[in-house]
Amino acid sequence: xxxxxxxxxxxxxxxxxxxxxxxxxxxxxxxxxxxxxxxxxxxxxxxxxxxxxxxxxxxxxxxxxxxxxxxxxxxxxxxxxxxxxxxxxxxxxxxxxxxxxxxxxxxxxxxxxxxxxxxxxxxxxxxxxxxxxxxxxxxxxxxxxxxxxxxxxxxxxxxxxxxxxxxxxxxxxxxxxxxxxxxxxxxxxxxxxxxxxxxxxxxxxxxxxxxxxxxxxxxxxxxxxxxxxxxxxxxxxxxxxxxxxxxxxxxxxxxxxxxxxxxxxxxxxxxxxxxxxxxxxxxxxxxxxxxxxxxxxxxxxxx
Length: 303
What we know:
By secondary structure, the chain is an alpha+beta fold. The protein is built from eight helices and 13 strands. The protein has helices spanning 23-32, 67-78, 87-93, 98-104, 154-166, 180-183, 229-240, 284-294; strands spanning 5-10, 36-41, 54-59, 82-84, 113-115, 133-137, 147-149, 171-175, 185-191, 194-201, 223-225, 250-257, 263-269. It has a five-stranded antiparallel beta sheet with strand order 11-10-9-12-13. Helix 1 (23-32) packs across helix 8 (284-294). The radius of gyration is 19 Å and the shape is globular.
Protein backbone atom coordinates (compact mmCIF):
# COMPACT_ATOMS: atom_id res chain seq x y z
CA UNK A 1 0.00 0.00 0.00
CA UNK A 2 1.22 3.54 -0.67
CA UNK A 3 2.13 5.64 2.37
CA UNK A 4 -0.60 7.63 4.06
CA UNK A 5 -0.64 11.22 2.88
CA UNK A 6 -1.51 13.86 5.48
CA UNK A 7 -1.90 17.63 5.13
CA UNK A 8 -1.25 19.80 8.16
CA UNK A 9 -3.20 23.00 7.57
CA UNK A 10 -1.63 26.32 8.46
CA UNK A 11 -1.85 29.98 7.38
CA UNK A 12 0.25 31.96 4.97
CA UNK A 13 3.10 33.88 6.65
CA UNK A 14 2.19 37.47 7.37
CA UNK A 15 3.09 40.00 10.09
CA UNK A 16 -0.05 39.39 12.16
CA UNK A 17 0.24 35.58 12.04
CA UNK A 18 2.85 33.95 14.28
CA UNK A 19 4.84 30.93 13.16
CA UNK A 20 3.66 27.51 14.32
CA UNK A 21 6.37 26.17 16.66
CA UNK A 22 4.86 22.66 16.57
CA UNK A 23 4.82 22.26 12.79
CA UNK A 24 8.44 21.06 12.32
CA UNK A 25 7.98 18.53 15.13
CA UNK A 26 4.75 17.15 13.66
CA UNK A 27 6.14 16.93 10.14
CA UNK A 28 9.26 15.12 11.37
CA UNK A 29 7.24 12.72 13.53
CA UNK A 30 4.83 11.86 10.71
CA UNK A 31 7.69 11.33 8.28
CA UNK A 32 9.44 9.14 10.83
CA UNK A 33 6.24 7.09 11.15
CA UNK A 34 6.21 6.44 7.41
CA UNK A 35 3.66 9.02 6.28
CA UNK A 36 3.93 11.66 3.58
CA UNK A 37 3.20 14.94 5.34
CA UNK A 38 2.91 18.48 4.02
CA UNK A 39 2.32 21.84 5.67
CA UNK A 40 -0.18 23.67 3.45
CA UNK A 41 -2.07 26.95 3.73
CA UNK A 42 -5.83 26.55 3.84
CA UNK A 43 -6.36 29.28 1.23
CA UNK A 44 -3.79 27.93 -1.26
CA UNK A 45 -5.91 27.36 -4.37
CA UNK A 46 -3.22 25.15 -5.93
CA UNK A 47 -3.62 22.41 -3.28
CA UNK A 48 -5.35 19.20 -4.34
CA UNK A 49 -7.14 18.36 -1.10
CA UNK A 50 -8.59 15.17 -2.58
CA UNK A 51 -5.05 13.86 -2.89
CA UNK A 52 -4.70 13.59 0.88
CA UNK A 53 -5.96 10.75 3.05
CA UNK A 54 -6.38 13.11 6.00
CA UNK A 55 -6.39 16.89 6.36
CA UNK A 56 -5.71 18.16 9.89
CA UNK A 57 -6.34 21.80 10.78
CA UNK A 58 -3.35 22.86 12.82
CA UNK A 59 -2.43 26.55 12.72
CA UNK A 60 -4.93 28.38 10.51
CA UNK A 61 -4.45 31.31 12.82
CA UNK A 62 -6.00 33.90 10.51
CA UNK A 63 -9.39 32.19 10.37
CA UNK A 64 -11.10 34.40 12.95
CA UNK A 65 -10.96 37.52 10.79
CA UNK A 66 -11.72 35.54 7.61
CA UNK A 67 -14.43 33.36 9.08
CA UNK A 68 -16.77 33.15 6.08
CA UNK A 69 -13.93 32.25 3.72
CA UNK A 70 -12.54 29.71 6.14
CA UNK A 71 -15.86 27.96 6.73
CA UNK A 72 -16.46 27.79 2.99
CA UNK A 73 -13.08 26.10 2.62
CA UNK A 74 -13.94 23.70 5.47
CA UNK A 75 -17.03 22.53 3.60
CA UNK A 76 -15.18 22.17 0.29
CA UNK A 77 -12.33 20.24 1.84
CA UNK A 78 -14.58 17.92 3.84
CA UNK A 79 -16.44 17.03 0.65
CA UNK A 80 -13.18 15.78 -0.86
CA UNK A 81 -11.40 13.98 1.97
CA UNK A 82 -11.46 13.42 5.72
CA UNK A 83 -11.07 16.66 7.67
CA UNK A 84 -10.20 16.87 11.36
CA UNK A 85 -11.77 18.14 13.35
CA UNK A 86 -15.07 17.66 11.55
CA UNK A 87 -16.90 20.64 10.00
CA UNK A 88 -19.69 20.52 12.59
CA UNK A 89 -17.12 20.77 15.36
CA UNK A 90 -15.27 23.61 13.62
CA UNK A 91 -18.47 25.62 13.22
CA UNK A 92 -19.57 25.04 16.81
CA UNK A 93 -16.20 25.71 18.45
CA UNK A 94 -15.12 28.60 16.25
CA UNK A 95 -17.70 30.93 17.81
CA UNK A 96 -17.44 31.42 21.57
CA UNK A 97 -21.19 31.44 21.98
CA UNK A 98 -20.48 27.79 22.80
CA UNK A 99 -19.60 28.92 26.34
CA UNK A 100 -23.25 29.77 26.89
CA UNK A 101 -24.30 26.39 25.52
CA UNK A 102 -21.86 24.60 27.82
CA UNK A 103 -23.06 26.60 30.81
CA UNK A 104 -26.63 25.58 29.98
CA UNK A 105 -25.41 21.96 29.91
CA UNK A 106 -24.06 22.30 33.46
CA UNK A 107 -20.37 22.78 32.65
CA UNK A 108 -18.70 25.30 35.02
CA UNK A 109 -17.52 28.15 32.79
CA UNK A 110 -16.29 31.70 33.26
CA UNK A 111 -19.55 33.75 33.46
CA UNK A 112 -20.13 35.34 30.06
CA UNK A 113 -22.48 37.97 28.63
CA UNK A 114 -22.82 38.69 24.92
CA UNK A 115 -23.25 42.15 23.37
CA UNK A 116 -24.01 41.83 19.64
CA UNK A 117 -23.78 44.59 17.01
CA UNK A 118 -26.82 46.82 17.17
CA UNK A 119 -27.04 46.32 20.91
CA UNK A 120 -25.89 48.62 23.71
CA UNK A 121 -22.34 49.93 23.56
CA UNK A 122 -22.48 52.74 26.10
CA UNK A 123 -23.73 53.34 29.62
CA UNK A 124 -26.66 51.03 28.90
CA UNK A 125 -24.30 48.11 28.18
CA UNK A 126 -24.39 47.10 31.83
CA UNK A 127 -20.64 46.72 32.30
CA UNK A 128 -19.52 45.71 35.80
CA UNK A 129 -19.30 48.56 38.27
CA UNK A 130 -17.65 46.78 41.20
CA UNK A 131 -15.03 44.48 39.67
CA UNK A 132 -12.47 44.22 36.91
CA UNK A 133 -13.75 42.76 33.68
CA UNK A 134 -12.59 41.52 30.28
CA UNK A 135 -14.00 42.28 26.85
CA UNK A 136 -13.13 40.13 23.84
CA UNK A 137 -14.84 39.00 20.61
CA UNK A 138 -16.68 35.72 20.08
CA UNK A 139 -14.52 35.34 16.97
CA UNK A 140 -11.01 36.15 18.05
CA UNK A 141 -7.47 34.91 18.50
CA UNK A 142 -4.10 36.28 19.51
CA UNK A 143 -5.62 38.79 21.97
CA UNK A 144 -7.09 40.91 19.15
CA UNK A 145 -9.83 43.12 20.62
CA UNK A 146 -9.22 41.59 24.05
CA UNK A 147 -8.66 43.85 27.03
CA UNK A 148 -8.91 43.99 30.80
CA UNK A 149 -10.60 46.94 32.51
CA UNK A 150 -11.13 48.36 35.96
CA UNK A 151 -14.64 49.70 36.70
CA UNK A 152 -13.48 53.29 36.38
CA UNK A 153 -12.25 52.58 32.83
CA UNK A 154 -15.70 52.01 31.41
CA UNK A 155 -15.38 54.93 28.95
CA UNK A 156 -12.44 53.20 27.31
CA UNK A 157 -14.43 49.96 27.31
CA UNK A 158 -17.33 51.70 25.55
CA UNK A 159 -14.89 52.82 22.86
CA UNK A 160 -13.84 49.23 22.33
CA UNK A 161 -17.45 48.05 22.12
CA UNK A 162 -18.30 50.68 19.52
CA UNK A 163 -15.32 49.72 17.37
CA UNK A 164 -16.11 46.01 17.65
CA UNK A 165 -19.74 46.56 16.71
CA UNK A 166 -18.68 48.70 13.74
CA UNK A 167 -16.71 45.68 12.49
CA UNK A 168 -19.72 43.41 12.99
CA UNK A 169 -18.20 41.67 16.00
CA UNK A 170 -20.18 40.38 18.97
CA UNK A 171 -18.44 41.21 22.25
CA UNK A 172 -18.11 38.94 25.26
CA UNK A 173 -18.00 40.47 28.74
CA UNK A 174 -16.52 38.36 31.52
CA UNK A 175 -15.32 39.04 35.06
CA UNK A 176 -11.56 39.13 35.32
CA UNK A 177 -10.55 35.94 37.14
CA UNK A 178 -8.08 37.30 39.69
CA UNK A 179 -6.76 33.93 40.82
CA UNK A 180 -5.08 33.57 37.45
CA UNK A 181 -2.25 35.66 38.92
CA UNK A 182 -1.72 32.89 41.50
CA UNK A 183 -2.61 29.63 39.78
CA UNK A 184 -2.23 30.66 36.14
CA UNK A 185 -4.14 29.34 33.15
CA UNK A 186 -3.93 25.60 32.59
CA UNK A 187 -4.35 23.88 29.25
CA UNK A 188 -5.15 20.17 29.04
CA UNK A 189 -4.29 18.79 25.59
CA UNK A 190 -6.11 15.72 24.25
CA UNK A 191 -5.15 13.82 21.10
CA UNK A 192 -6.99 10.77 19.86
CA UNK A 193 -9.36 10.99 22.82
CA UNK A 194 -6.59 10.72 25.43
CA UNK A 195 -4.79 13.27 27.57
CA UNK A 196 -1.45 14.04 25.95
CA UNK A 197 -0.11 16.53 28.49
CA UNK A 198 -0.99 19.74 30.29
CA UNK A 199 0.64 23.14 30.58
CA UNK A 200 0.42 26.20 32.79
CA UNK A 201 1.03 29.79 31.72
CA UNK A 202 0.96 33.23 33.27
CA UNK A 203 -1.78 35.84 32.64
CA UNK A 204 -1.95 37.21 29.11
CA UNK A 205 -4.01 40.38 29.59
CA UNK A 206 -2.31 43.15 31.51
CA UNK A 207 -4.07 46.17 33.04
CA UNK A 208 -3.98 49.61 31.42
CA UNK A 209 -3.17 48.22 27.96
CA UNK A 210 -4.95 49.11 24.75
CA UNK A 211 -7.48 46.64 23.45
CA UNK A 212 -5.38 45.40 20.53
CA UNK A 213 -2.73 43.26 22.18
CA UNK A 214 -1.63 41.17 19.21
CA UNK A 215 2.01 41.87 20.05
CA UNK A 216 1.51 40.41 23.53
CA UNK A 217 2.89 36.92 24.06
CA UNK A 218 -0.02 34.51 23.84
CA UNK A 219 1.61 32.00 26.18
CA UNK A 220 3.84 33.80 28.70
CA UNK A 221 5.86 31.64 31.08
CA UNK A 222 4.47 28.40 29.70
CA UNK A 223 5.62 25.16 31.31
CA UNK A 224 4.43 21.61 31.83
CA UNK A 225 1.76 21.02 34.45
CA UNK A 226 0.38 17.97 36.23
CA UNK A 227 -3.42 18.32 36.13
CA UNK A 228 -5.42 17.77 39.29
CA UNK A 229 -8.36 15.41 39.61
CA UNK A 230 -10.93 18.25 39.46
CA UNK A 231 -9.21 19.70 36.38
CA UNK A 232 -9.33 16.35 34.57
CA UNK A 233 -12.96 15.84 35.56
CA UNK A 234 -13.94 19.28 34.26
CA UNK A 235 -12.07 18.73 30.98
CA UNK A 236 -13.83 15.41 30.43
CA UNK A 237 -17.20 16.96 31.29
CA UNK A 238 -16.67 19.77 28.79
CA UNK A 239 -15.57 17.42 26.00
CA UNK A 240 -18.52 15.12 26.65
CA UNK A 241 -20.87 18.09 26.18
CA UNK A 242 -19.67 18.85 22.65
CA UNK A 243 -22.71 18.27 20.41
CA UNK A 244 -22.82 15.75 17.61
CA UNK A 245 -21.36 12.31 17.00
CA UNK A 246 -18.07 13.50 15.50
CA UNK A 247 -14.97 12.18 17.24
CA UNK A 248 -12.36 14.76 18.23
CA UNK A 249 -8.88 14.10 16.89
CA UNK A 250 -7.49 16.92 19.01
CA UNK A 251 -8.76 19.25 21.70
CA UNK A 252 -7.41 21.73 24.20
CA UNK A 253 -9.30 22.58 27.36
CA UNK A 254 -8.25 25.90 28.93
CA UNK A 255 -9.04 26.34 32.62
CA UNK A 256 -8.69 28.99 35.33
CA UNK A 257 -9.79 29.10 38.97
CA UNK A 258 -12.78 31.05 40.24
CA UNK A 259 -12.70 33.05 43.48
CA UNK A 260 -13.30 29.89 45.52
CA UNK A 261 -10.38 28.06 43.89
CA UNK A 262 -12.60 25.81 41.78
CA UNK A 263 -11.49 25.24 38.17
CA UNK A 264 -13.80 26.66 35.51
CA UNK A 265 -13.64 26.51 31.74
CA UNK A 266 -12.17 29.54 29.99
CA UNK A 267 -12.11 28.16 26.44
CA UNK A 268 -12.60 24.86 24.62
CA UNK A 269 -10.23 24.92 21.64
CA UNK A 270 -11.32 22.48 18.92
CA UNK A 271 -10.40 24.30 15.70
CA UNK A 272 -6.69 25.13 15.61
CA UNK A 273 -5.23 24.95 19.12
CA UNK A 274 -1.52 25.08 19.78
CA UNK A 275 -0.75 21.61 21.19
CA UNK A 276 2.44 22.86 22.90
CA UNK A 277 4.64 20.12 21.47
CA UNK A 278 7.53 22.56 21.62
CA UNK A 279 7.22 22.38 25.42
CA UNK A 280 7.34 18.58 25.31
CA UNK A 281 8.88 17.44 21.99
CA UNK A 282 8.88 13.77 23.00
CA UNK A 283 5.09 13.80 22.63
CA UNK A 284 5.28 14.35 18.86
CA UNK A 285 5.46 10.62 17.94
CA UNK A 286 2.29 10.00 19.99
CA UNK A 287 0.52 12.71 18.01
CA UNK A 288 1.78 11.24 14.74
CA UNK A 289 0.42 7.81 15.64
CA UNK A 290 -2.97 9.31 16.49
CA UNK A 291 -3.09 11.18 13.18
CA UNK A 292 -2.19 8.02 11.25
CA UNK A 293 -4.83 6.04 13.10
CA UNK A 294 -7.43 8.67 12.12
CA UNK A 295 -6.63 8.40 8.42
CA UNK A 296 -8.95 6.05 6.51
CA UNK A 297 -7.27 3.03 4.98
CA UNK A 298 -7.22 2.49 1.26
CA UNK A 299 -6.90 6.11 0.20
CA UNK A 300 -8.86 9.33 0.61
CA UNK A 301 -12.36 9.19 2.00
CA UNK A 302 -14.97 11.90 2.14
CA UNK A 303 -15.43 13.33 5.64
